[in-house]
Amino acid sequence: xxxxxxxxxxxxxxxxxxxxxxxxxxxxxxxxxxxxxxxxxxxxxxxxxxxxxxxxxxxxxxxxxxxxxxxxxxxxxxxxxxxxxxxxxxxxxxxxxxxxxxxxxxxxxxxxxxxxxxxxxxxxxxxxxxxxxxxxxxxxxxxxxxxxxxxxxxxxxxxxx
Amino acid sequence: xxxxxxxxxxxxxxxxxxxxxxxxxxxxxxxxxxxxxxxxxxxxxxxxxxxxxxxxxxxxxxxxxxxxxxxxxxxxxxxxxxxxxxxxxxxxxxxxxxxxxxxxxxxxxxxxxxxxxxxxxxxxxxxxxxxxxxxxxxxxxxxxxxxxxxxxxxxxxxxxxxxxxxxxxxxxxxxxxxxxxxxxxxxxxxxxxxxxxxxxxxxxxxxxxxxxxxxxxxxxxxxxxxxxxxxxxxxxxxxxxxxxxxxxxxxxxxxxxxxxxxxxxxxxxxxxxxxxxxxxxxxxxxxxxxxxxxxxxxxxxxxxxxxxxxxxxxxxxxxxxxxxxxxxxxxxxxxxxxxxxxxxxxxxxxxxxxxxxxxxxxxxxxxxxxxxxxxxxxxxxxxxxxxxxxxxxxxxxxxxxxxxxxxxxxxxxxxxxxxxxxxxxxxxxxxxxxxxxxxxxxxxxxxxx
Lengths: 161, 449
Known about the structure:
The complex is a heterodimer of chains A (about 160) and B (about 450).
Chain A lengths: L1 H41 L2 E6 L6 E2 L1 H8 L13 E4 L5 H10 L4 H12 L8 E2 L3 H10 L3 E6 L7 E3 L1 E2 L1
Parallel strand pairs in A: 2-7, 3-4, 3-5
Antiparallel strand pairs in A: 1-5, 1-6
Chain B lengths: L1 H26 L9 H4 L19 H11 L7 E13 L13 E16 L2 E12 L3 E2 L3 E14 L2 E11 L31 H4 E13 L3 E12 L4 H8 L6 E4 L2 E10 L4 E15 L12 E14 L3 E14 L12 E14 L4 E11 L8 H7 L7 E12 L4 E12 L18 E12 L1
Antiparallel strand pairs in B: 1-2, 1-18, 2-3, 3-4, 3-5, 5-6, 6-7, 7-8, 8-10, 9-11, 10-11, 11-12, 12-13, 13-14, 14-15, 15-16, 16-17, 17-18
């Protein structure tokens, strides 16, 4: 009797297993897809400039110098105007860590050091992607960053060498 | 198997949630604030005027600040400022007011600065600072800095320029912005290096400075500053510290020099700095009032070595200073004539960021007025004054809460052995002897924009 019940249980659990295997596989596929989307989302942004900026290619070091607010002029002598999203913004953090290779808190302390000693200016803060796009498209000398999906012909994409 | 299934579903949900968050950032039309609407209204999606913003509505201060930030002011004009209030209580001895008797709200700092770039290579900046801290600082607003900065050469990472006016003295990691609570590690800076007792002399001076920045192969950058300046020595604190008593005459401003070089790796993880000051001043006695000391001159030449390592969650910082004092023989008093000694200071500090909002800090800070008399015993034997006035060892722990990017609260505790860096103005002899071992508790609220 006991043995029979046991066998029955094994049988039913096997039955569930087969049914659940499909679920398991689809769950794994969903996971993987999400993972891929996530990875892709991170490389899915670009450094963008005002359309009138003549520089099209830039080195990582110069880019870091610009976002640290040390390099203040484009090679043609015009003013650089830096636009950034809030420190806690996902895109800002990705750009800081992946493109500039610094932690967002280090950018913040570098800005504080120059702003409160008068040796530099703070970047212009925007509160949303839409505002970023509008400001970079309309401010001469502007530099910022955008998700690729938000990039249109009103801004230039800066290539990093 | 069921466990596995549940687990993989959880993981799946986690990633889905993450991906959604990312796509939210990407696609969610956000509420566009009015100042930029005039810029490009036609280009924005129609739904952008519908408020989907769930953030709390900013008050009038917030809106004003937003206006400053988002409006295109002429010449890239910017305004920034800060205001902090601390409450300090000590077991014994006074720090910024009568702190050992129920505590005091004696430390208030506020500043407002403006900067603009009339030309691409020219920046003009000025800051007004008010600091109320014990007897030494009344809170009277003063010009903290005000200068012109012209960038002579600029190519990629390499920069070279000149600054003329009243400038912050560049030494150590923290002196340039020492009055801005947000930029300080703790309510009190390590007092062995950044004395609050004699701060004016080290704070800023009227000067001409050259600065440069250069790439060091592919490792990082070196930035240097070097200048000649006239120190600000016309205050009681400085006079007490340098000539030991308040005299009827005054200290003169003689040409002095300052320089700093900082090496920073490209990822800003490692920062190393060397700074030095060559400070010259001389005493102008008022002989008619029966001044007891003569027209002596003195040289104060501290050298600072600084190092910092920054990881994502933690930072380690250490600074060391060796301070050389040299007096000539024109003071006419044996206590000052031909004085020549080295002071020594250092601290080790660890900061940990639990979350972006919560940070913890620990520090050990040591000060020795004379490195060849670290326990002050020689000094005590010669003068009869207590030995603990010649050193201070300070152990500190603190917690910082960044409530918003603008507003910060923090608390800290110090246990101090020695009274070396206490202000003599706040602790006059008339209030009785100082206590060798003492504790300090402090809390602070700070706002900046």
